[in-house]
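dumping this here before i forget
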Amino acid sequence: MIRLIDVKKVYDNGTEALKGISFTIEDGDFAFLVGPSGSGKSTIIKLLTGEIVPTSGRVMVNGFSMGRISDRQIPYMRRTIGVIFQDFRLIMNKTVWENLSLAMRAVGASPREIKNRIPYVLELVGLKGKEQSFPDQLSGGEQQRVAIARALVNNPSTIVADEPTGNLDPNRSLEIMTLLERINALGTTVVVVTHERGLVNHFDKRVITINDGLVAGDGMGQYEVAKK
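structure:
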């Protein structure tokens, strides 16, 4: 579960990124986090992944309090959350299998666990047979599927996708979103951060709208333009 309670974030340069954000995403939910550039979406992602801590308020991620988490706890917290980035962040001189095995080895997975898990995840994301391909031998959509597989490979309870379709054409974007919807149906909590209104409106999911550091809307249905 993800819970933000009256969260404020002021950066060292004085920028007030969040002005009192509160919302809860229950286990197994699918939610879009939307809003214009500069609204505070990226700050929320950084809070959820432990990159930064709130100035005030509470951020809870899968039982961990992000404002009070110890260095020792961070690796355990990060095993519960998989992050998908817009720019894929794959290691280009390593194969698909090697990219995924590195992610598993980073959390202490055994060779047997790696051997069993990677084929399952690659089949789930539609990349069976691509194990020995290098990223530059794949299309943009396939590279994003590798990034999704990497986020899934350690079996996290939550996936956070930060603009996962920003570098893809509309057809590939729809495919990626449909894949994330399928992953959610298997029980994984999915949070998708995006500014693509048409894509959000194609899916009947919860939409949390952020504008000027505040929650401007929260409900099922359409992504409307937030008004101050």
